[in-house]
Amino acid sequence: MTLATRLCRLSLMCTPCFFSENAFALEAALHKAFETKKLNMVNPRKEFFRIPLLDIKREVGKNFDKTVEWTELPWAEEHRTSEKMRLAAAPN
How many CB atoms lie within 10 A of CB 1? Predict the structure, then answer.
């Protein structure tokens, strides 16, 4: 799989995304580190994990030697607006 194909697939999911000079190696290291945290035990192609962000930060720090900028509260304006609309429309 090419890097462009992988990035395209990741961009279609609601998933943390990272860029690295060796993204495949970093991704493999993260998958190995979090193997026991997989949500789907039946289909190994479903790459969803339940992991606290702090654990991901630690693991990235072990496997990535450059400066990393983390965005813990994404912009997500449409999501936040939708949530406000749902709350306003909900019966009290």
Answer: 7
